[in-house]
Amino acid sequence: MPWIQINVTVDEKKVKKVSSMLQGAGAQAVTYTDAKDAPIYEPPVGSTKLWHSTVVTGLFEADIDPFRIVSFVKKHFGQEVFCRVEQLEDKDWVREWMEYFKPMKFGSRLWICPSACSVPDPSAVNVMLDPGLAFGTGTHPTTAMCLEFLDGENLEGKTVIDYGCGSGILAVAALKLGAGEVVGIDIDPQAVEATLDNARRNDVKSRLQVYLTEDKPQSLMADVLVANILAGPLRELAEEISGLVKAGGRLALSGILETQAEELSQIYSKWFKIDDIRTRDEWARIVGTKK
After folding, report:
1. Cα angle vertex 222, ends 219, 227, to 5°?
2. Which of 1, 167, 182, 199 has its Cα between 20 and 30 A from that of 70?
3. What is the pLDDT of residue 78?
4. 165-190 pLDDT per residue, tens
5. Contact, 52 vs 38, CB < 8 A?
6. pLDDT class for 133, splitting at 50, 70, 90?
7. For 30-36, which contacts have Cβ atoms below 8 Å and span 24 or more sequence positions?
8. Eight-state DSSP code of residue 283
9. CATH of region 3-90
10. Rounded distance, CA 261 to CA 242, Å?
């Protein structure tokens, strides 16, 4: 069925109240987007940073009266509040997304492929991955650089930790590239679910363990660790992350801006010889070897 979308542009102080109002009016989902192209690269850990001017969007079933809702919003927040009503056509949104998500190659032998597409090279290392919970498909530069790192490592029989596993794309790729065992760690139960599901789809679940951060084994050690998160957590968790890597083991850090790479390199150089810092589209990846 078709849907109606109501967009309300307000300052950040009113976002939660408008969101609650739209939910109370029957919105099936509420999302926030930037109204004035003012990107937020990294909010403080544990916080939800909003743009100064934010578009609050409510998604409603088509049988509602959108103008009654708009009138209600303006009555409470002022007639000057900008509201826009849009009708969304009825589409298979998963199929629509698949028009844009095509097989992608990383390094010399690794492909990430949506299940709806034919595998370009059956002899290559193919990871089947569709968008879903804890979304991550390799399209972001930081994920791409981590996948290229894994493709370039000899993972045969090694233990790999994917710290902040999200969709599990790095964990599954490591297993398909020959890792003997992979451990995924995340703070989000949905990430645990998504990682296990994607491992199951790729027939590698038997060599995968996934833990919430507080539940990971105390004795856990890895030959290779990848952490594609943010600079704040990488900074705060530097000692813990470094302690998970064996002497001579390899480390790849990403999810950080190019401007943050030097600081993070200096922090981790206490435990690692920094071998390489690579950048792409303002993002960076740091690779090191444990001393």
Report:
1. 110
2. 1
3. 86
4. 988 999 999 999 999 999 999 988 88
5. yes
6. very low
7. 30/56, 30/57, 30/58, 30/59, 31/56, 31/57, 31/59, 32/56, 32/57, 33/57, 35/9
8. E
9. 3.30.70.120
10. 17
Two structure tokens written together for 8: 């309300």
Q: What is the spatial distance between Cα 74 and Cα 86, in angstroms, rounded to a whole number?
A: 17
Tokens standing for residue 52: 């100064």
Distance CA 65, CA 75 (A): 16
Q: What's the mean per-residue pLDDT of the chain?
A: 86
Secondary structure letter of residue 82 according to DSSP: E
Question: Tokens at residue 126, please?
Answer: 């193919």
Alpha-carbon gap, residue 268 to 278, rounded angstroms:
16
- Alpha-carbon distance 168 to 228, whole Å? 11
Domain ranges of the chain: 3-90, 131-290
CA dist list (Å): 60 to 8, 51, 87, 92, 249: 14, 24, 10, 17, 51
Return the axis-axis angle of helices 66-77 and 15-24, rounded to nearest 10°.
150
Question: Thinking of the domain 131-290, which architecture would CATH place it in?
Answer: 3-Layer(aba) Sandwich (3.40)
pLDDT grade, residue 35 (50/70/90)? low
pLDDT, tens digit, for every residue of 58-94?
998 888 888 899 999 988 888 888 899 988 766 665 5
Beginning with the edge strand found earlier in the chain, give each strand of the sheet holding 110-113 in spatial order.
104-106, 110-113, 125-128
Q: Which pLDDT value is given to residue 261?
A: 96
Q: What is the side-by-side order of every strand in the sheet holding 53-61?
A: 29-34, 53-61, 3-11, 82-88
State yes or no: pLDDT of 44 exceeds 80.
no
